[in-house]
Design brief:
By secondary structure, the chain is an all-alpha fold. It contains three helices and no strands. Helix 1 crosses helix 2 and helix 2 packs across helix 3. The longest helix has 26 residues. It is elongated and about 40 Å long.
C-alpha cells in the first residue's frame, strides 16, 4: 500500500456513465426544477436543502478538501439554476435533454 486511497469503483454497468439519466414525472426533483425554471428562488432553496449535505460530503471525500467541495457544490447549483428550463422541458417530454 502506498498511502494513497484506493480509486473509487463504480457499481454501474460499463458505459452507464455515458448515458444521460432519464428525467421522468416520477423524479421527485422535477417539480422543484420546474419552479426553478420559472425563476422561483424558493424552489432552488428547497432543491439545495434536499441535496447539499450529501453532495458536499461526496465532493469532500473525492477531493479531500472541504473548500474545494464548497466550490463544486456552488458550481453544481448555479448550473442547475441555469439549466433548469432545459431540464424541465426534457422532464415534461418537450426536449431532448441535451
Amino acid at each position: 500500500m502506498d498511502g494513497h486511497p484506493a480509486p473509487l469503483r463504480s457499481l454501474a454497468p460499463a458505459g452507464a456513465h455515458l448515458q444521460k439519466p432519464a428525467v421522468t414525472d416520477a423524479d421527485p426533483d422535477l417539480p422543484l426544477i420546474e419552479r426553478i425554471a420559472r425563476g422561483d428562488t424558493r424552489g432552488c432553496g428547497l432543491l439545495l436543502d434536499r441535496h447539499l449535505t450529501r453532495l458536499h460530503a461526496l465532493a469532500t471525500r473525492m477531493l479531500g478538501n472541504p473548500a474545494d467541495a464548497d466550490e463544486v457544490c456552488q458550481d453544481t447549483f448555479v448550473r442547475a439554476w441555469q439549466q433548469a428550463p432545459r431540464i424541465a422541458a426534457a422532464g415534461r417530454g418537450g426536449g431532448s435533454g441535451r
